[in-house]
Specification:
Layout (H helix, E strand, L loop, with lengths): L1 H22 L13 H31 L8 H14 L9 H19 L1 H11 L1
Helix pairs in contact: 2-3, 3-4, 4-5
């Protein structure tokens, strides 16, 4: 099998090299001063993919918050989802201290504890929102 693959790859490489040499420039080359449409299309597709990811994540976050209305962790779970989204979209956050997401999650847990401890305050807030 190796004896057949290597000559085929060499022949394919020779064909693409001679085809590229015949035209002089590779297909992806854009001379200075001209618009690179492939880059713009790629950038738009990339931004739309990020928008789709954030949209789906926010829909799930809204669903999780709606389903967790009467549970003790109604704020903590959406906060954890938001922190996870931030770490997935921006891998550079790995270099930050773990204290940032831990602080956000602990604040959400404290809020959930206070809502659990005094549920009448949450009912008052919901009535003023109506």
């Amino acid at each position: 099998m190796k004896k057949l693959v290597l000559p085929a790859l060499l022949a394919l490489g020779a064909m693409t090299t001679s085809a590229a040499a015949a035209s002089g420039e590779p297909r992806w080359w854009v001379p200075p001063g001209e618009t690179d449409t492939y880059t713009w299309v790629g950038l738009i597709v990339f931004l739309l993919a990020i928008f789709l990811l954030i949209h789906l994540y926010s829909q799930f976050d809204h669903y999780a918050e709606h389903r967790a209305k009467g549970t003790p962790l109604r704020t903590t779970i959406p906060t954890m989802l938001t922190v996870a989204l931030a770490y997935e979209i921006m891998p550079a956050l790995d270099h930050f201290s773990i204290l940032l997401p831990a602080t956000l999650i602990m604040t959400a847990i404290a809020r959930d504890f206070m809502l659990w401890w005094r549920p009448e305050e949450e009912a008052a807030v919901e009535e003023t929102a109506k």
